[in-house]
Specification:
3-stranded parallel sheet, 4 domains, 274 residues, Rossmann fold, 12 helices, mainly alpha
Length: 274
Protein backbone atom coordinates (compact mmCIF):
# COMPACT_ATOMS: atom_id res chain seq x y z
CA UNK A 1 0.00 0.00 0.00
CA UNK A 2 1.31 3.44 -0.98
CA UNK A 3 2.43 5.75 1.81
CA UNK A 4 0.19 8.62 2.85
CA UNK A 5 1.07 12.19 3.79
CA UNK A 6 0.90 11.17 7.46
CA UNK A 7 3.50 8.45 6.85
CA UNK A 8 5.90 11.08 5.52
CA UNK A 9 5.25 13.33 8.52
CA UNK A 10 5.88 10.43 10.89
CA UNK A 11 9.16 9.73 9.10
CA UNK A 12 10.21 13.33 9.72
CA UNK A 13 9.08 13.65 13.33
CA UNK A 14 9.87 10.16 14.66
CA UNK A 15 12.02 7.97 12.44
CA UNK A 16 14.30 10.67 10.94
CA UNK A 17 16.06 8.16 8.71
CA UNK A 18 18.38 9.92 6.19
CA UNK A 19 17.81 7.07 3.70
CA UNK A 20 14.00 7.22 3.94
CA UNK A 21 13.58 8.64 0.43
CA UNK A 22 15.69 5.87 -1.06
CA UNK A 23 13.02 3.36 0.02
CA UNK A 24 10.09 5.19 -1.60
CA UNK A 25 8.34 4.05 -4.75
CA UNK A 26 6.81 6.36 -7.34
CA UNK A 27 3.34 5.78 -5.85
CA UNK A 28 4.64 6.84 -2.41
CA UNK A 29 5.86 10.19 -3.75
CA UNK A 30 2.40 11.14 -5.03
CA UNK A 31 1.23 11.84 -1.49
CA UNK A 32 4.18 14.10 -0.67
CA UNK A 33 3.38 17.81 -0.59
CA UNK A 34 5.95 20.42 0.47
CA UNK A 35 3.23 22.86 1.43
CA UNK A 36 1.08 20.43 3.47
CA UNK A 37 4.01 18.94 5.36
CA UNK A 38 5.35 22.39 6.21
CA UNK A 39 1.88 23.36 7.36
CA UNK A 40 1.58 20.35 9.67
CA UNK A 41 5.03 20.81 11.20
CA UNK A 42 4.42 24.51 11.91
CA UNK A 43 1.53 23.54 14.21
CA UNK A 44 3.99 22.47 16.88
CA UNK A 45 4.58 25.62 18.97
CA UNK A 46 8.04 24.39 19.98
CA UNK A 47 9.12 24.22 16.34
CA UNK A 48 7.65 27.46 14.98
CA UNK A 49 10.98 29.33 14.81
CA UNK A 50 12.82 26.35 13.30
CA UNK A 51 10.16 25.71 10.67
CA UNK A 52 9.96 29.44 9.86
CA UNK A 53 13.62 29.34 8.79
CA UNK A 54 12.72 26.93 5.99
CA UNK A 55 9.61 28.83 4.90
CA UNK A 56 11.31 30.68 1.99
CA UNK A 57 12.64 27.40 0.55
CA UNK A 58 9.63 25.07 0.80
CA UNK A 59 8.61 25.51 -2.82
CA UNK A 60 12.12 25.73 -4.27
CA UNK A 61 13.56 22.57 -2.69
CA UNK A 62 12.97 19.10 -4.06
CA UNK A 63 11.05 16.74 -1.70
CA UNK A 64 14.16 14.78 -0.71
CA UNK A 65 16.14 17.97 -0.04
CA UNK A 66 13.33 19.36 2.12
CA UNK A 67 13.03 16.07 4.02
CA UNK A 68 16.76 16.10 4.83
CA UNK A 69 16.52 19.75 5.89
CA UNK A 70 13.65 18.95 8.27
CA UNK A 71 15.37 16.01 9.97
CA UNK A 72 18.53 18.10 10.19
CA UNK A 73 16.96 20.94 12.21
CA UNK A 74 14.21 19.23 14.22
CA UNK A 75 14.98 17.72 17.65
CA UNK A 76 15.78 14.01 17.72
CA UNK A 77 13.35 11.62 19.38
CA UNK A 78 9.72 10.56 19.08
CA UNK A 79 7.26 13.41 18.68
CA UNK A 80 3.50 13.21 18.37
CA UNK A 81 2.22 16.02 16.25
CA UNK A 82 -1.24 17.27 17.14
CA UNK A 83 -2.96 19.56 14.72
CA UNK A 84 -6.11 21.54 15.31
CA UNK A 85 -9.16 19.75 13.95
CA UNK A 86 -12.26 21.70 13.18
CA UNK A 87 -15.71 20.66 14.28
CA UNK A 88 -17.21 17.76 12.37
CA UNK A 89 -18.63 19.28 9.23
CA UNK A 90 -20.12 18.42 5.87
CA UNK A 91 -19.36 21.81 4.32
CA UNK A 92 -17.05 20.29 1.72
CA UNK A 93 -18.81 19.10 -1.40
CA UNK A 94 -18.18 15.53 -2.50
CA UNK A 95 -16.49 16.54 -5.75
CA UNK A 96 -13.94 18.65 -3.85
CA UNK A 97 -13.16 15.84 -1.38
CA UNK A 98 -12.74 13.43 -4.32
CA UNK A 99 -10.23 15.80 -5.95
CA UNK A 100 -8.19 15.93 -2.74
CA UNK A 101 -8.28 12.13 -2.55
CA UNK A 102 -6.97 11.96 -6.10
CA UNK A 103 -4.29 14.61 -5.62
CA UNK A 104 -2.97 13.38 -2.26
CA UNK A 105 -3.59 9.66 -2.81
CA UNK A 106 -5.40 9.42 0.52
CA UNK A 107 -8.71 8.37 2.04
CA UNK A 108 -11.79 10.60 2.16
CA UNK A 109 -11.32 11.09 5.88
CA UNK A 110 -7.73 12.26 5.38
CA UNK A 111 -8.79 14.47 2.47
CA UNK A 112 -11.36 16.19 4.69
CA UNK A 113 -8.71 16.74 7.36
CA UNK A 114 -6.39 18.25 4.73
CA UNK A 115 -9.17 20.61 3.65
CA UNK A 116 -9.69 21.70 7.27
CA UNK A 117 -6.03 22.71 7.43
CA UNK A 118 -5.92 24.34 3.99
CA UNK A 119 -9.01 26.42 4.71
CA UNK A 120 -7.23 28.08 7.65
CA UNK A 121 -4.70 30.05 5.61
CA UNK A 122 -4.71 32.20 2.51
CA UNK A 123 -1.98 30.10 0.88
CA UNK A 124 -4.00 26.97 1.65
CA UNK A 125 -7.14 28.35 0.04
CA UNK A 126 -5.15 29.28 -3.05
CA UNK A 127 -3.79 25.73 -3.13
CA UNK A 128 -7.31 24.27 -3.09
CA UNK A 129 -8.17 26.43 -6.09
CA UNK A 130 -4.97 25.31 -7.83
CA UNK A 131 -5.87 21.62 -7.33
CA UNK A 132 -9.30 22.25 -8.86
CA UNK A 133 -7.81 23.93 -11.91
CA UNK A 134 -5.19 21.22 -12.20
CA UNK A 135 -7.85 18.54 -12.73
CA UNK A 136 -9.99 20.59 -15.10
CA UNK A 137 -12.85 21.42 -12.75
CA UNK A 138 -15.69 23.26 -14.47
CA UNK A 139 -15.35 27.04 -14.47
CA UNK A 140 -18.74 27.42 -12.79
CA UNK A 141 -17.64 25.27 -9.84
CA UNK A 142 -14.31 27.09 -9.52
CA UNK A 143 -16.11 30.46 -9.54
CA UNK A 144 -18.42 29.28 -6.75
CA UNK A 145 -15.47 27.85 -4.82
CA UNK A 146 -13.43 31.03 -5.29
CA UNK A 147 -16.30 33.03 -3.82
CA UNK A 148 -16.24 30.85 -0.71
CA UNK A 149 -12.45 30.82 -0.45
CA UNK A 150 -11.70 34.46 -1.28
CA UNK A 151 -12.09 35.51 2.34
CA UNK A 152 -9.65 38.29 3.20
CA UNK A 153 -7.29 37.99 0.23
CA UNK A 154 -8.23 41.50 -0.97
CA UNK A 155 -7.03 43.14 2.24
CA UNK A 156 -4.44 45.83 1.52
CA UNK A 157 -3.14 46.05 5.10
CA UNK A 158 -2.96 44.08 8.33
CA UNK A 159 -6.31 44.17 10.20
CA UNK A 160 -6.55 46.37 13.29
CA UNK A 161 -8.03 43.43 15.22
CA UNK A 162 -9.37 39.90 14.85
CA UNK A 163 -12.78 38.93 16.24
CA UNK A 164 -13.21 35.19 16.93
CA UNK A 165 -16.38 33.27 17.80
CA UNK A 166 -14.90 29.80 18.48
CA UNK A 167 -11.31 29.79 19.80
CA UNK A 168 -11.02 26.03 19.40
CA UNK A 169 -12.07 25.95 15.76
CA UNK A 170 -10.08 29.09 14.89
CA UNK A 171 -6.94 28.10 16.79
CA UNK A 172 -4.68 28.53 13.75
CA UNK A 173 -6.10 31.96 12.96
CA UNK A 174 -5.33 33.05 16.53
CA UNK A 175 -1.75 31.75 16.26
CA UNK A 176 -1.20 33.63 13.01
CA UNK A 177 -2.69 36.82 14.48
CA UNK A 178 -0.34 36.52 17.46
CA UNK A 179 2.65 36.23 15.10
CA UNK A 180 1.59 39.46 13.36
CA UNK A 181 0.79 41.23 16.66
CA UNK A 182 -2.86 41.61 15.71
CA UNK A 183 -5.06 42.02 18.83
CA UNK A 184 -7.49 39.11 19.24
CA UNK A 185 -10.99 39.65 20.63
CA UNK A 186 -12.82 36.37 21.21
CA UNK A 187 -15.94 34.76 22.59
CA UNK A 188 -14.56 32.05 24.89
CA UNK A 189 -16.81 29.18 25.96
CA UNK A 190 -16.15 27.10 29.07
CA UNK A 191 -14.86 24.20 26.95
CA UNK A 192 -12.29 26.28 25.06
CA UNK A 193 -8.92 27.84 25.85
CA UNK A 194 -8.27 31.60 25.96
CA UNK A 195 -4.56 31.20 25.08
CA UNK A 196 -3.53 33.88 22.60
CA UNK A 197 -6.66 35.97 23.24
CA UNK A 198 -6.06 39.60 24.22
CA UNK A 199 -9.66 40.54 25.03
CA UNK A 200 -11.84 37.70 26.26
CA UNK A 201 -15.64 37.76 26.29
CA UNK A 202 -17.07 34.79 28.24
CA UNK A 203 -20.01 33.37 26.33
CA UNK A 204 -21.73 30.50 24.55
CA UNK A 205 -20.20 29.92 21.10
CA UNK A 206 -22.61 27.11 20.14
CA UNK A 207 -25.99 28.83 20.43
CA UNK A 208 -27.10 30.73 17.30
CA UNK A 209 -29.02 33.26 19.39
CA UNK A 210 -25.89 33.93 21.45
CA UNK A 211 -23.70 34.26 18.34
CA UNK A 212 -26.22 36.58 16.67
CA UNK A 213 -26.30 38.77 19.79
CA UNK A 214 -22.51 39.13 19.91
CA UNK A 215 -22.21 39.75 16.16
CA UNK A 216 -25.00 42.35 16.21
CA UNK A 217 -23.37 44.31 19.04
CA UNK A 218 -19.86 44.09 17.58
CA UNK A 219 -21.18 45.18 14.16
CA UNK A 220 -22.89 48.21 15.75
CA UNK A 221 -19.65 49.25 17.48
CA UNK A 222 -17.63 48.91 14.26
CA UNK A 223 -20.18 50.90 12.23
CA UNK A 224 -20.46 53.67 14.84
CA UNK A 225 -16.69 54.03 15.09
CA UNK A 226 -16.39 54.03 11.30
CA UNK A 227 -18.96 56.85 11.02
CA UNK A 228 -17.08 58.87 13.66
CA UNK A 229 -13.77 58.27 11.88
CA UNK A 230 -15.22 59.19 8.48
CA UNK A 231 -16.70 62.40 9.94
CA UNK A 232 -13.37 63.31 11.54
CA UNK A 233 -11.43 62.53 8.34
CA UNK A 234 -13.93 64.56 6.31
CA UNK A 235 -13.46 67.55 8.60
CA UNK A 236 -9.67 67.28 8.42
CA UNK A 237 -9.85 66.94 4.64
CA UNK A 238 -12.11 69.99 4.31
CA UNK A 239 -9.72 72.05 6.44
CA UNK A 240 -6.91 71.12 4.07
CA UNK A 241 -8.86 71.66 0.86
CA UNK A 242 -7.75 74.45 -1.58
CA UNK A 243 -11.10 76.18 -1.12
CA UNK A 244 -10.65 76.34 2.64
CA UNK A 245 -7.06 77.53 2.28
CA UNK A 246 -8.22 80.22 -0.17
CA UNK A 247 -10.95 81.32 2.23
CA UNK A 248 -8.48 81.51 5.11
CA UNK A 249 -6.09 83.53 2.98
CA UNK A 250 -8.92 85.91 2.07
CA UNK A 251 -9.82 86.25 5.74
CA UNK A 252 -6.22 87.11 6.60
CA UNK A 253 -6.11 89.69 3.81
CA UNK A 254 -9.41 91.19 4.99
CA UNK A 255 -8.12 91.41 8.56
CA UNK A 256 -4.92 93.11 7.42
CA UNK A 257 -6.92 95.45 5.18
CA UNK A 258 -9.28 96.35 8.02
CA UNK A 259 -6.32 96.91 10.31
CA UNK A 260 -4.73 99.22 7.73
CA UNK A 261 -7.99 101.15 7.30
CA UNK A 262 -8.32 101.50 11.06
CA UNK A 263 -4.75 102.80 11.32
CA UNK A 264 -5.40 105.32 8.52
CA UNK A 265 -8.59 106.51 10.18
CA UNK A 266 -6.79 106.88 13.52
CA UNK A 267 -4.01 108.94 11.90
CA UNK A 268 -6.55 111.15 10.13
CA UNK A 269 -8.42 111.68 13.40
CA UNK A 270 -5.22 112.69 15.19
CA UNK A 271 -4.32 115.16 12.40
CA UNK A 272 -7.78 116.76 12.56
CA UNK A 273 -7.36 117.32 16.29
CA UNK A 274 -4.00 118.96 15.69
Amino acid sequence: MAKSLFDHIKAITNEQNPKYFDTLEEADLKSWSNYMIHRFLSMNNDWIDLIAELQPYTQALQPKQLYLAYIGILPKGRHYLRYVKGKKTDKYEDWLVELMVKDYQCSKKEATEYLEILYNSREGREHIKYVCEKYGTEKKQITKLDKNLSGIKKLTKVPDALFIIDTGYERIAIQEANKLNIPVIAIVDSNNSFDGVDYMIPGNDDSMSSINLFLTEVTKIIKNNRVKKDTKDSKIHSDKSPKTKSLRKKQVIDVEKNKKNTDDELKAHVQDED
